[in-house]
Task: inverse folding
């Protein structure tokens, strides 16, 4: 056999390993930077380095959990029109290869977290334990399944605040909780709309959801995100810390982003994979960039 054959095999294997780790999902770890942004952490090189390492740690640990989840669901995923193309159900990566991958990257991620602080270590271990319970049991319990998913976002915020010595604002933390739940239930609504319109088989828990209940939940959560974020911007602690009341002007930007996301869920059946779908809509991308720029300019 030629050297080209072995090079192609090696390149294909590396490409499939990368797909198995789902690096596109790492965008979720931007939640780690929430406290950093509002604490103007860019003024501290040490804090910036700690945050970058914490994000890398969470990315590796999250990828390890994705591998465990894919191992658990590989047979069922073979029947799904999109998930069957994943490395494990497609057979491009063996189960033993996936297990070895998880065994390698999970300790590296946890070790990096411990290097940042013991608090980050505890948050990462909590994430691993919670998601193992989710993978094998909790993902089939209606409502609770989304709360478990949302807990991952909350742990990311805590890693980026308490984990690196930034005291979190109570209103900002509450806003993060509401936003995490909003994204989680939005994902379920999008999945439900797609499975019922195309008569595809979806995850088991979808049979226990109804569009009417999810409509009510999303309405409540979108309002909660707006209210808690608005309260954060006018909170006296926030005003005193940043010496400005101008953050209130970013509330309409957040409102537009929420309403645009709801529009995509109901009219374009988008939202099954928020990590991918956000970047498919120029309005959402533009909204996030405008919000980030506005916050940096106001605080800077």
Result:
């Amino acid at each position: 056999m030629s050297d080209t054959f072995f090079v192609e095999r090696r390149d294909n294997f590396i490409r499939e390993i990368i797909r198995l780790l789902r690096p596109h999902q790492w965008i979720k770890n931007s939640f780690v930077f929430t406290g950093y942004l509002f604490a103007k952490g860019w003024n501290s090189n040490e804090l910036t380095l700690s945050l970058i390492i914490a994000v890398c740690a969470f990315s590796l640990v999250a990828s390890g959990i994705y591998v465990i989840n894919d191992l658990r669901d590989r047979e069922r995923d073979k029947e799904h029109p999109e998930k069957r193309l994943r490395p494990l159900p497609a057979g491009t990566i063996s189960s033993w290869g996936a297990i070895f991958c998880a065994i390698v990257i999970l300790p590296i991620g946890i070790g990096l977290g411990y290097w940042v602080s013991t608090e980050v270590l505890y948050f990462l271990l909590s994430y691993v334990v919670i998601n193992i319970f989710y993978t094998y049991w909790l993902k089939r319990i209606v409502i609770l399944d989304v709360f478990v998913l949302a807990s991952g976002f909350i742990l990311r915020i805590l890693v980026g605040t308490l984990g690196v010595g930034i005291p979190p604002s109570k209103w900002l933390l509450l806003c993060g909780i509401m936003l995490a739940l909003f994204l989680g239930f939005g994902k379920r609504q999008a999945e439900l709309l797609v499975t019922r319109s195309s008569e595809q088989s979806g995850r088991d828990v979808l049979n226990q959801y109804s569009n009417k209940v999810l409509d009510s939940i999303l309405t409540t959560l979108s309002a909660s995100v707006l209210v808690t974020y608005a309260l954060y911007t006018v909170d006296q602690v926030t005003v005193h810390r940043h010496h400005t009341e101008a953050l209130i002007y970013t509330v309409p930007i957040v409102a537009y982003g929420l309403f645009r996301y709801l529009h995509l869920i109901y009219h374009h059946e988008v939202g099954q994979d928020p990590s991918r779908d956000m970047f498919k809509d120029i309005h959402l991308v533009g909204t996030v960039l405008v919000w980030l720029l506005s916050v940096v300019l106001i605080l800077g």
